[in-house]
Amino acid sequence: MQTERWLRLSEAAKAALEGMLQFAIFRQVEWTIDGTRRQVAEWLGPETGLGITTIQGGMAELELAGLLRKGRSGAGGPAGFVIAAPLVER
Fold this sequence. Notes:
Layout: H1 4-8, H2 11-21, E1 25-27, E2 30-34, H3 37-48, H4 52-64, E3 68-70, E4 80-83
Antiparallel strand pairs: 1-2, 2-4, 3-4
Helix pairs in contact: 2-3, 2-4, 3-4
């Protein structure tokens, strides 16, 4: 990705977004991730080598950039996030 928005993100935010994509589920026209910020960071922190706290910071940065938002995944589902970044399914 070479968009201006992507290039401005920190390595932690990029790693968080890329890592979350493997857990994303397409529901009701949105890509969602089930889990709390802490759970997602626990899944991705060791995998990326950046650590839990760094991934949590990256997720916060994605929210501020408008690329991730808190949201329920499905009707009455568990807490989670909605990826607001433009995605193309491949």
